[in-house]
């Protein structure tokens, strides 16, 4: 005899979610660069990520890897210094207790075009006589060839001699030995390979070295003038950089600027003495000493008060000369008088 029925209703909640990897795409990397292959997976619990390499090696975050490859915490596979031998199909595996998902990513490795590591455009200043080095470091696979083009259009390759003092080292650095202002201009470094080219341009400005001026020519050290003659003293400076300023110092100590020629019309007695011609620039000072002697105008110091009379008894016709006072014996004036008996 049936006694009855019992029923039990059970609700099952599945908390686990199988992994799902977001869609990927093929990746291209340049030879020598680091390739990053992403793998983003969802799931509950969070799935563990590992990668299956083209050679069959399985790599996970806990694995040491081959030294160049490793898996980051977010699941990205990093391959450093890739080469054409690293190209192929890489498979990302996402696993949790609810299941597994996978995604294949194709890696293509191509030759890297040349790249110049220094500034593409640079201005460089130098001083005459210095040795200047202009670097040009390049990178690329295959190894790029490097040459420089000088301002006059001459191409210079490593260890090639085109003129004294100009040399390109194997590392691409251009050496300019004993640079001169005429070396100023644009220098272009060009790197080329089968995959492309790159370049950099250096604008070079070479200025003359600062130097002390020199007195190139000047009037004779001693100048003698007669009364009424014009005074003309010359002084020319040369070789100074920056160009020097010329000035004269008069005997009374007064300085005044000049183009190099000193002219005094109708010089007087106080103009006689020492004259200094000086050339100055930022480096220093040089001077030339010139002397001026000036003959003076005759000047009678004493005059007779009246008629000069002779002494009785002189021989008739005898002449006596009277010497009047003067400043210079060479300019004395003789006055002759005839004294009668």
UniProtKB/TrEMBL annotation:
Record-linked CDD domains: Ig
Presence of keyword Repeat: yes
Broad class of the protein's primary localization: membrane
Domain Ig-like: 19-108, 114-203, 213-281
Superkingdom of this protein's organism: Eukaryota
Pfam families reported in the protein's UniProt record: I-set, Ig_3
Stretch forming the signal peptide: 1-24
SUPFAM superfamilies linked: Immunoglobulin
GO cellular component, one term: neuron projection
Subcellular location(s) of the protein: Membrane
The entry's keywords: Disulfide bond, Immunoglobulin domain, Leucine-rich repeat, Membrane, Repeat, Signal, Transmembrane, Transmembrane helix
Membrane-topology descriptor: Single-pass membrane protein
Cross-referenced SMART domains: IG, IGc2
Name this polypeptide is given: Immunoglobulin superfamily member 10
